[in-house]
Sequence to fold (122 residues):
Amino acid sequence: MNSESDHHVTDARLDEVGARPVLVETPAGRLALVRRGTGEDARVVAVDAWCPHIDGPLWEGAVSGDEIACPWHGWRYSLSSGACTWAPHGDAEEAAETEIRVLEVIEGVGGRAVVVVPQGRG
Ligand code: FES
Fold:
């Protein structure tokens, strides 16, 4: 275990995370477990459950490839970098300064999803 990270065991199993995000409670806040990519390149990551635009339910967002789209106003975020990749309605300047956390998820005992939070990012 890396001493520079916190490991948060969730109630969700990794194999439960499919096309739709799974909401989990952790000491690092509410997070959405998301399966990004497809095939052998697919992996589960954890992202902020709330959209940084105006707190929409990002955990109800649609995942497509390497992006998640917020259901409220459609802002899209990279599931690799966390950067906002698209915002409608001329919000480009605000979007360029907006990002979500993207955290590593590993498999724990019993297939549980374990979120790895680097110190200082919780
Ligand atoms: S609250 Fe998510 S795009 Fe507006």
